[in-house]
Amino acid sequence: MATNITFHPGAVTPAERAELLGQKGATVWFTGLSASGKSTIATALEQALLHRRLHSFRLDGDNIRFGLNKDLGFDPKSREENIRRIGEVSLLFASSSSIALTAFISPYVADRELARALHAKHDPPLPFIEVFVDAPLSVVESRDPKGLYKKARAGEIKEFTGISAPYEAPPKPEIHIKTDEVDVTGAVEIVIKYLEAQGIIKAQQ
Amino acid sequence: MATNITFHPGAVTPAERAELLGQKGATVWFTGLSASGKSTIATALEQALLHRRLHSFRLDGDNIRFGLNKDLGFDPKSREENIRRIGEVSLLFASSSSIALTAFISPYVADRELARALHAKHDPPLPFIEVFVDAPLSVVESRDPKGLYKKARAGEIKEFTGISAPYEAPPKPEIHIKTDEVDVTGAVEIVIKYLEAQGIIKAQQ
After folding, report:
1. What ipTM was predicted for this assembly?
2. pLDDT greater than 70 at residue B194
3. Which of A51, A70, B37, B182 reaches 20 to 30 Å from B48, CA-CA?
4. Domain for residue A8, yes or no?
5. Residue of B nearest to A59 (CA)
6. Contact (CB<8Å) A47/B118
7. Where does the pLDDT of residue A1 fall: very low under 50, low under 70, confident under 90, or very high at 90 and above?
8. Could A93 and B97 be called an inter-chain contact, meaning their C-beta atoms sit closer than 8 Å?
């Protein structure tokens, strides 16, 4: 029954954790218009990473807005706090040596830069990979899977990103995915190759 | 350069995730007086799990109070919100197939039951393992590593758990660790064996 457990004092270091788990932690932060494909790409990326036996977790509206952030509304201050908390939670996942994937419109440069700064200030700093999922408004509006753009055009939804509220495109994202040039598989490959090139995950044999 | 990525539609199921990563998710929620040994045991448990190449992450005052919950004070409402958020974040880790370890005094039954309920209501339900780190007040007060009990006795800290604020012991914790009967290694072995018995992690060969 002996489990032969021996401990060294103090917490496991980030380097030791990365070595033991075979991956470094990082946050891949998707940003883009509603219906641009953020969630679809993040979901496919999560699948691809898990099939390599790598730990990854996707934060999205479903698991955040109905859980951690269910106390928040949609006024400007609440939206800012929403993104702040997502930044902090993604940082926790990244510091656990997981690859956090966030799939939120996150339309403002300032909010995204705040999340980036949290990762940069962490000891040790953790990679923050901003992925701009760039789909033209005409395309996402024609998709409109939930009828949100239609409602926004009709004035039934106020301050809808791209229609009645601004989307501030990232000036210098780590990855720029133009959805009229690559499909989901192509987008996932781009991110995977980036993670490999950065030494966050190992290249497959 | 082909990465041969193929996807199935939708997200990876929890069962598929557990299979791919070789572990189920769970939250191990330590509760007990200040200086009872919660953090020490959680730190050692995290080490033991990581050395088995299992994903685990410890939430504690350092990574929560200075990050996600830095907007919260210490009034009753803030304390409740502090524990609520910790419950939600541990749920996210558990649903990622990680083993979340929380090491907070969390003195109130109601707050801990709220965290437990979040796990029970999740689809699928996730294990919530309450570990009562039971050290007599006389012992923790004699340890007093940060001099907090002394300050509390002197009235310099108000509402200090065990001195001037109640600690509500868990009536039915999954695991009851009496620190005058087991050392840190013994405590870790108890939790590990529990996780194995529940099929959350595999028994070692």
Report:
1. 0.95
2. yes
3. A51
4. no
5. B92
6. no
7. very low
8. no
Both tokens assigned to B17: 């995730």
**Residue A50 resides in a domain:** yes
What CATH number is given to the structural domain containing B156? 3.40.50.300
Would you say residue B22 lies in a domain?
A: no
Contact of A49 with A56, CB cutoff 8 Å: yes
Please confirm, yes or no, whether B106 is among the known catalytic residues.
yes
| Whole-angstrom distance, CA of residue B70 vs CA of residue A121 | 15
* Residue A96 structural domain: 22-197
Residue among A116, A61, A108, A67 nearest A88 (CA): A116
**Amino acid in position A26:** A
pLDDT in tens, B98-148: 999 999 999 999 999 999 999 999 999 999 999 999 999 999 999 999 999
Q: Give the 3-state secondary structure of residue B157.
A: coil
Whether B205 maps to a domain, the answer reads no
Cβ–Cβ below 8 Å for B55 and A21: yes
Residues B115/B83, Cβ–Cβ less than 8 Å: yes
The total number of structural domains in chain B stands at 1
- Give CA–CA dist A177/A183, Å, rounded: 9
* Gyration radius (Cα) of chain A, Å: 18
Residue A5 pLDDT: 61
